[in-house]
Amino acid sequence: MKMRSTSSLSVIAGCCRYRAPLRLSFLNLTPPPLNHHRLCIIPPPHLAAAAAATFSSRCCRLPDPHPSTGNSLFSSMERFWSGSSISKNKEMVEHLKSYGVMRSSKVAEVMETIDRALFVPEGTQPYVDSPMQIGYNATISAPHMHAMCLELLENHLKPGMHALDIGSGTGYLTACFAVMVGSQGRAVGVEHIPELVETSIKNIKKSEAAPLFEDGSFSVHVGDGRQGWPEFAPYDAIHVGAAAPEIPPALIEQLKPGGRLVIPVGNVFQDLQVVDKNTDGTLSVRSETSVRYVPLTSRDSQIRGY
User: Fold this and answer.
1) So what's the pLDDT on residue 83?
2) Predicted structure pTM score
3) Which residues of the chain have pLDDT under 70?
4) Phi/psi at 22 (nearest 5 deg)?
5) Could you tell me the sign of the dihedral formed by the alpha carbons of 233, 234, 236, 239, in that order?
6) What would be the CATH architecture of the domain defined by 2-304?
7) Could you tell me where the beta strands, DSSP code E, fall in the chain?
8) What is the reported pLDDT for 286?
9) CA distance linking residue 106 with residue 111, whole number of Å
10) Is residue 217 annotated as a catalytic residue, yes or no?
11) Catalytic pick from 82, 130, 141, 200?
């Protein structure tokens, strides 16, 4: 197995590494260089085995045994830019841009188009940069994680492409995918909690993605996300919103050559892994950052609290 590694600036924050926003440089934190990105080229005969391979995280043990989905910013650092006083969706996007979390103008445009307030429980602060409980031991990721994942997948969410969102929850990120791939593409959400699917459809119909849902280019389904959704495969982009102990082989199979999968992998220690399927069928896998997500598991285990 051929391995290559590069380095990336990280900040130790609440016992977890976080890729620092640009404006946080005033903190004067100068961590040592870390081989944070790890790239692995996997030959075609071992695709299934490679899909099951995980790359261990070097972050510290986190104190919360039931972490919130997509929270890569912890403790006091989050208070620097949590945005608790933000009351409008556009302000949330501008806030993320001002701290260097969001660099893509296309991602900014999409996150401005899809109002997060339509996809979070009533009575919550929709624009706070924090994950939120949505019931059934599930959460919606923090806005900075949505921005990160959209930027990682941006080149695979062009008009006409196919996108799959596993663990679609309240439908927010799936709606962003739908807007990006447009009516000539296909955006598919898979969620194994029927009540969340029902809620997500109601949310989508109130959003700017409603016409895409009505014309059939955007759909949400009840199913086991670990099996993907073969009906509209292969996919140019696949996102998984929960941490798998190993990459499900079905998702690798349904990923189009030239496509990209973004998935958190691990148990206590988790990495956000970026998996590119090359045109010859090999896989390139790298770890983007250390993260903390709820587990990708069966519906019964999730309802029981894992």
Assistant:
1) 53
2) 0.77
3) 1-84
4) -60, -40
5) positive
6) 3-Layer(aba) Sandwich (3.40)
7) 2-6, 11-13, 16-18, 37-42, 132-135, 138-140, 162-166, 186-191, 218-222, 235-240, 255-266, 270-277, 283-291
8) 97
9) 9
10) no
11) 141
